[in-house]
Write a structure and sequence with these properties.
alpha+beta, Alpha-Beta Plaits, SH3 type barrels, five-stranded antiparallel beta sheet, 39% strand, KOW, transcription termination, transcription regulation
């Protein structure tokens, strides 16, 4: 019934932090309902990131798109309905009215080429290594071009709290790793 020519990648919006649960639930549904010829793969786009923990280099997976899961499938109204009714699933992204839009080939290439491997220079360069007390420059968001001192680091979230001088007062601001860079 399912024609492999219809096999495309779709973006599924989930509750943030529930990506793994949604992936597991879709995979269970595929097994239980024998949908292997309609749903082929479920991926959580992530990237391996090197960081320092207690003086040791540790590689962790950081989600590239928190709150989203990619599903390779033959889209049908029936399958869309089944997946959207799973717990922690919000909706498929795109395509108002006529159903979700699949990702284009370019979008897929970009997403999957971003998923670096541990050996690559890009990932092991100390891009995400911040220390409490370090001065950082904010490069994105409402506080761009401000500098601040690192107050606390949340490696599991890929975020940190930085104290920024605003109108002469030190104000704590929580930022994503990607919104700051080292002053050195």
């Amino acid at each position: 019934m399912g024609d492999s020519l219809d096999k495309k990648w779709y973006v599924l919006q989930t509750y943030s932090g529930h990506e793994n649960k949604v992936k597991t639930n879709i995979e269970k549904m595929v097994q239980q309902q024998k949908l292997e010829d309609q749903i082929f793969s479920v991926k959580i786009p992530s990237m391996e990131v090197a960081e320092m923990k207690n003086g040791k280099k540790k590689v962790t997976k950081k989600k590239l798109m928190p709150g989203y899961v990619l599903v390779e499938m033959n889209m049908t109204d029936d399958l869309r309905f089944k997946i959207q009714n799973l717990p922690s699933v919000s909706t498929f992204v795109g395509g108002k009215g006529k159903g979700p839009e699949p990702l284009s080939l370019d979008e897929i290439k970009n997403l999957f080429s971003d998923v670096g491997n541990v050996e690559s220079e890009e990932v092991s360069r100390p891009r995400f290594l911040f220390k409490v007390g370090e001065t950082l420059k904010i490069i994105d968001g409402p506080f761009a071009n401000f500098t601040g001192l690192v107050d606390e680091i949340f490696p599991d979230k890929g975020r940190l709290r930085v104290r920024v001088e605003i109108f002469g007062r030190s104000t704590p601001v929580e930022l994503d790793y990607l919104q700051v860079k080292s002053e050195q």
